[in-house]
Every structure is written in structure tokens, then in C-alpha cells.
């Protein structure tokens, strides 16, 4: 599948109707999501025929992208049942098979490296300090091949240090810097939309 085709399909997905500010629910736009998954597959072979997990999947954009790129199986995890309903409808609409699980990522009781690849757009940690790190820590425990994740560029050094020192990463690499268009979703947002610089990371876990 070509990048433009993937981006076009993701652009038609339903997104949050009532986003929950405490969970930092922001949609992963089709531009970023398509490039993230396309890079994971075309540069590293980490999606097609692999078991892929999407942590904090929201309305399922990254999950659907993985399924469209022929992942062997895709599991989306999220704490919010309403988002998972939308994600299920999105998967049905595009006729892709995805398992969605309602759970708190930070309390995930998965044992060992049971998926090949984790993809995620975690909370940036602006509402709940350290939320981004909790997601990264959980992802690094279950992925055997790679973790792809978006983090604010301003946290780059902190992320790299923590991944290598605390989260069992063999390597931590910024693949590219992207502009994240943050639409005005919440009342406290003053401007119509804000551009945030985010890094697309690829972390490779050490094998246990």
C-alpha cells in the first residue's frame, strides 16, 4: 500500500466526540499516523506479519494503520470505553480485524515480550506528570522487536536517558521530527490549533 493511500484511508476515521482532558486525548492525525507506520514497515519490517500492540489506542488510528499494512494481528489497548467503541466502528468500516482491550496501560499484567512491535501516541505528560514515561516503560516490557512512539521534542534528552538507563532499551533513536497539529478540543485552549514539535522514536528492547 502506498503512503498517500494509507493517509487517505486514515483521514476518514471517526475521532473523539467527547475527549477526556485528564487522559490527554488528542487524535493522531492521518499525516503523522501514516508516516509513523509506513516508516516502521518500509524501513524496518516491523509491521507486516508481526504481532502489533497499540497502547492508548484511542479511536484506533494506529491500530487500523497496522492492520492495513498486513500485521499478523493487532491489539489496541485503552482505558476509555467510549473511545474503544469508536475504534471498533472504525475497524468495521475498513473491514480490518483488530482486538480491542479495555485496561489501564500502567497496570497491564502482561508477562514477557509477547508482541513483536508496540506503536503508540502516549499522553505527553502535561496533565499527569510522567504519564509518557509510564507508557514507555510498559511498552518496553512487552515488545520483542521495537517500540515506536511520539514524544515532545522538548523532552528528547530526558526520553533517551530514561529509555537506555531505566527501560531496558538496547537503542533509542529519533527517526524524524514532526509537527503535531493540536486542534482546539478543550475549553482551556485559547487558539484554534497549535503546532507542537514531536519526535518519532524507535526503541529497540534488549532481549530478556
TrEMBL record:
Pfam families: PrmA (PF06325). Transmembrane segments: none annotated. Keywords: Coiled coil. It comes from the Eukaryota. InterPro entries: DNA_methylase_N6_adenine_CS (IPR002052), rRNA_MeTrfase/Polyamine_Synth (IPR051720), SAM-dependent_MTases_sf (IPR029063). The keyword Coiled coil applies. Residues 84-111 form a coiled coil. CDD domains: AdoMet_MTases. The keyword Ion transport does not apply. This is Methyltransferase-like protein 5. It comes from Camelina sativa.
Amino acid at each position: 500500500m502506498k503512503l498517500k493511500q494509507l493517509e487517505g484511508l486514515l483521514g476518514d476515521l471517526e475521532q473523539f466526540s467527547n475527549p477526556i482532558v485528564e487522559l490527554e486525548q488528542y487524535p493522531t492525525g492521518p499525516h503523522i499516523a501514516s508516516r509513523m507506520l509506513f516508516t516502521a514497515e518500509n524501513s524496518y519490517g516491523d509491521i507486516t506479519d508481526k504481532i502489533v500492540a497499540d497502547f492508548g489506542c484511542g479511536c484506533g488510528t494506529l491500530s487500523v494503520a497496522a492492520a492495513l499494512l498486513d500485521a499478523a494481528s493487532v491489539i489496541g489497548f485503552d482505558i476509555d470505553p467510549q473511545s474503544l467503541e469508536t475504534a471498533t466502528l472504525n475497524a468495521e468500516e475498513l473491514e480490518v480485524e483488530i482486538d480491542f482491550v479495555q485496561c489501564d496501560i500502567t497496570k497491564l499484567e502482561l508477562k514477557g515480550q509477547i508482541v513483536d512491535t508496540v506503536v503508540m501516541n502516549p499522553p505527553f505528560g502535561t496533565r499527569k506528570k510522567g504519564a509518557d514515561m509510564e507508557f514507555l516503560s510498559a511498552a518496553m516490557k512487552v515488545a520483542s522487536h521495537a517500540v515506536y512512539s511520539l514524544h515532545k521534542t522538548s523532552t528528547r534528552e530526558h526520553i533517551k536517558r530514561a529509555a537506555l538507563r531505566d527501560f531496558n532499551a538496547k537503542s533509542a533513536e529519533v527517526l524524524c521530527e514532526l509537527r503535531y497539529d493540536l486542534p482546539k478540543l478543550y475549553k482551556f485552549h485559547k487558539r484554534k490549533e497549535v503546532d507542537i514539535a514531536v519526535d518519532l522514536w524507535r526503541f529497540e528492547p534488549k532481549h530478556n
